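A further point concerns the way the authors explain their paired sequence and structure data. For illustration, here is how one protein appears when written out as sequence plus structure tokens:
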Amino acid sequence: MSTSPGSPQIARIPSLDGLRALSIFLVVSLHTLQRYSINHHVGVGWYAIFNGGYGVLIFFEISGFLITNLLLQEHQKRGSISLRGFYLRRAFRILPPLYFYIGIVILLGVFGHVALDRTDIVSSLFFFHNFVQHSTMWSLEHLWSISVEEQFYLVWPFLLVFFLRRPGVAGRFAASVFPIAILIVSPFARVLLGHQKNPLMHHIGVNYLNFDFLMFGCLVALLQHTPRFESMYRKATRVWWLPPAVIAGCSVLTARYQNYFDLPIGYTINGAAIAMFLLWCTRNPSSVIGRILNWGPIVKIGVLSYSIYLWQTLFLHHLNVVVFGSLTWISTFPGNWAGFFLLATFSYYVVEQPSLRLRSRLIQSFHLYAAKRKLNKSQQSALSS
């Protein structure tokens, strides 16, 4: 994540934008495949290759890893974490592109091109869309994942501030208890809720109980550089392709057995493999994989990935004929890919970038990252351990 004036000076983490590009490619490929499958037979193997669900899960792990790293580095540099600064940064990063997209959808609804539903709109605006049992607005159905991330943002920074009251590595170990607990409980919760007759509980357990992927990212950020974790990491990545091979194997089993594999063990195995591969990619930017992930055009797609995710459903969903009518060239491949890419680029430069510049000015105006107490050498050593 690049820094901006007035923000805490945090080094950019290599390969993350490239992994974002991979994630969004999997998402849009799956949605394209689903559109194609309406009138054509598509084998299970194609769903294993273009597993868009895994793309979303990689996004979750990137978020957990990145946000925790940013907060830990800020704590190390300043001796504290500015929650006001964090939420200001997140608000100006997430809300303008999201609300711009929702606004366009509402405008389309006003002119009769999409159906409008108050519950879907309100839940998308206020981040509880993952708890909506029956989403009737296909144009907003993908925003469940944004709700999951925002719920994570509302809870995790407060917990981290609380646990980091302990100095040095003790604070990190204390903070790691929460992610570990979520990782242990989640498979049981998914299976239990998945068997509930209550439709809402069943829906949440089967479809949207994915917080453990965020926690995998948090846990890696907290425990990296500690002896026991580094020993595990070396074993898991002794052969670099082992984690991606496990991910590929999980994708095949997911395509074949779906929730029968995912809910009890599949998500957990896959989450651990993604975590190891994510860390390997950030540590090996000069490898062949690292050079691909950090190649300029790939990085650019990763930078645009949030806006692409917002706009892709409008162009890829099979019901979008009500929006585009006879303009089939823009609602089918490859025109639909060009359409969401152009609108995502427009949103990035016209909405997202101006909001980020405004964010920087506000951070400077409010002095949210003014220098705190100066750490002595022993404190600096403790915080960096």
